[in-house]
Design a protein that fits this description.
The complex is a heterodimer of chains A (about 375) and B (about 260). Chain A is mainly alpha-helical and about 375 residues long. In chain A, strands 1-2 form a two-stranded antiparallel sheet. Chain B has about 260 residues and is α+β, with helices and mostly antiparallel strands. Classes of the chains: A mainly alpha (about 375), B alpha+beta (about 260).
Chain lengths: ~375, ~260
């Protein structure tokens, strides 16, 4: 029975189904997490196993997890979009609107803050939020538990992964395992290495702009100063105090308080998690509310349209001044510089990641 | 007769074997183990002159009459040590530590420190040249030198930011808010600190050392955010001013008590 179930699914590992010989296959960390990204912060109480990851993948793609069985996690997190969604904001069950743009999902093993407002610090807790949210998947946990317990598929895979009957606690652990394995580090930029071998002159110029401080003191500005909030190998600051959660000057007043609604501190109002710029060409629309359709609009924002009156604006935007003690000013990149920056950002696309069968729909 | 002797020898050997195995399994007496070790928490108290530094609002007026709001104040330390009575140093843990004085809990705790009398605390702000230029991907996920943990690594440019202070300021007489960002980095800007204050560590008295950090002491004649709002230890002029900044940093931190 177990074997026949296994054979029904794509790229599924084949294991013994006997609970007496319960021996989940451990995943060697080095086989998933590339050295270049550093050592990930994996939960010590949820070791990765082949069976656990596969169970998490099944759950991620299963519409059983929504009240009307119309949506799965993958409905709003599409692999071809680096697990983001090409919509301004998502639409939940019964067509209900979701407030924010669906975040891309990758390299989460290196993060400690999740969601646009950084309110979750653990993926095993995070997964319960969209499942239960009335305007997302809208399913209550007792009903979910009941559905899982009645499913032969999950009876089988919970046994393999945890030697247990289906339950929502280990469901969240399995989903955490799958999410942790979503690793993206095989872009053209990664392949180019520190010498940027293989990148063309425009892409190289874009990288220089990316990691150079803005200088408005005479002559054409030669820096776009992206690296403060999107720097490092993850292209994303991890420390909330150091640009990881920040205000990028979108608005003078806030329709969405972002992290401020979570912490209750007015100094956090209008601050949001800085997303990774890896795969950025695939993850539009951009910003927490999906207001920018294209990367060109994003670059225009940072170059020409930052609202410096925005409360709590990042110090690393507000320090763009043209002279001692002067007020903050726009960077005013040239058309050519904007194109260079765009070309560089496009080198961060990891086509292997978006076609990796290990992340694909197993049904 | 021979059998009796053999039995005696066998029992003797067994006895020795049990004693040897038994000894291997025995932990050192718990009383000694606990008695010998203590812990020390080093906590930072961010100040602005005589008042606590406000990190949620303006109101910190410096010597240049600039109104300052600090939002990020991260420090990487190395060779964090206790100064022993004989003036030698006892390194705590692996000697590295990260603290952010703009966080809600700017403190860290070392455990398993031998009991005894100590003369003070010492550390460097920054890391030595070897660590600064070594491959940074080897450090564990919450180690101070991990490349992703605290955003104190330069990334592709290589090396660590030893000391970061960022925020916004209003120039004297102005209501305009601008940003400031001072990143102390590069080998020559490694700086050492020693705080002399006698204290005793014992197992029944874990201690808390309080270091006050007065941000107003960073500023001097040439050092104002109006004069230079961004310094990333880059150009020669940046390095000249940052050296003055690091020199002033010596006055910023004061060990106030060990209780």
């Amino acid at each position: 029975m177990a074997l026949s179930l296994s054979q029904c699914r794509k790229s599924e590992p084949i294991y013994s189904s006997s609970s007496e010989s319960f021996k989940p296959t451990p995943i060697i960390s080095a086989s998933i997490f590339p050295r270049a990204l550093g050592i990930p912060a994996l939960p010590t109480d949820n070791p990765l196993t082949e069976e656990g990851v596969y169970l998490g993948r099944l759950l991620f793609y299963d519409r059983l997890l929504s009240a009307d069985m119309s949506l799965s996690c993958a409905s709003c997190h599409l692999q071809k979009n680096a697990f983001a969604e090409p919509k301004k904001t998502s639409v939940g069950i019964f067509g209900l609107p979701v407030k924010r743009n669906a975040s891309a999902l990758f390299n989460m093993a290196y993060s400690r803050k999740f969601f646009w407002d950084g309110r979750q610090s653990r993926l095993a807790n995070l997964v319960f939020e969209p499942i239960q949210a009335h305007n997302e998947m809208g399913l209550n946990l007792p009903e979910l538990d009941d559905r899982l317990k009645k499913s032969e598929l999950y009876q089988n895979w919970f046994k393999k992964a945890f030697n247990a009957d289906p339950n929502i606690g280990q469901m969240s652990m399995a989903m955490e395992q799958f999410l942790l394995t979503l690793v993206s580090s095989d872009s053209r930029f990664d392949k180019a290495g520190p010498s940027l071998t293989g990148l063309n002159s425009s892409e190289k110029a874009g990288f220089t702009l990316f990691q150079t401080l803005t200088n408005l003191q005479g002559g054409q500005n030669q820096g776009a100063d992206c690296f403060h909030c999107h720097g490092g190998i993850l292209f994303q600051a991890q420390n909330p105090l150091a640009g990881g959660i920040t205000n990028n000057g979108l608005d003078a007043s806030f329709a969405d308080l972002g992290a401020g609604a979570i912490t209750g501190n007015s100094t956090d109002n209008g601050t949001f998690k800085s997303p990774s710029l890896r795969n950025i060409s695939l993850t539009g629309p951009y910003m927490h509310d999906g207001r920018f359709q294209s990367l060109n609009e994003v670059i225009d924002h940072y170059s020409d349209n930052i609202d410096f009156s925005s409360p709590n604006i990042s110090p690393n935007l507000a320090n763009h001044v043209s002279g001692p003690g002067g007020p903050p000013e726009q960077m005013k990149l040239t058309v050519a510089q904007k194109q260079d920056l765009l070309n560089f950002l496009q080198t961060l696309t990891d086509s292997t990641f978006i076609t990796n069968p290990k992340y694909a729909n197993p049904f | 007769m021979k059998r009796v002797k053999m039995k005696r020898v066998t029992f003797l050997l067994l006895g020795i074997l049990v004693a040897v195995i038994g000894c291997k399994k025995c932990p050192p007496p718990i009383e000694n183990e606990v008695k010998d070790l203590s812990s020390l928490t080093i906590t930072y108290k961010p100040m602005f002159d005589a008042n606590p530094l406000t990190t949620k609002a303006f109101g910190n007026i410096n010597t240049h009459n600039e109104d300052i709001l600090v939002s990020n104040w991260g420090i990487i330390m190395s060779d964090v040590s206790l100064i022993k009575e004989d003036n030698t140093k006892l390194k705590l843990g692996d000697g590295y530590m990260y603290v952010n004085l703009a966080s809600s809990d700017p403190s860290f705790t070392f455990t398993n420190i031998p009991e005894g009398n100590y003369k003070g605390i010492a550390y460097n702000i920054g890391v030595d040249s070897l660590a600064n230029h070594a491959d940074p991907v080897v450090w564990g996920p919450t180690h101070p030198l991990n490349i992703n943990f605290n955003s104190q690594h330069w990334g592709w440019a290589g090396g660590y930011i030893f000391h970061t202070i960022e925020g916004k300021y209003k120039p004297s007489g102005s209501t305009t808010e601008s940003g400031f960002s001072y990143h102390t980095a590069k080998d020559p800007l490694l700086s050492s600190y020693e705080y002399i204050l006698d204290f005793t560590l014992s197992n029944n008295a874990p201690r808390i050392a309080t270091i006050e950090a007065d941000a107003n002491k960073f500023f001097s004649n040439e050092l104002s955010f109006t004069n230079q709002s961004t310094n990333h230890s880059g150009s020669s002029e940046d390095m000249r001013l940052m050296s003055l900044w690091v020199n002033n940093m010596k006055q910023v931190f004061t060990l106030k008590s060990v209780n």
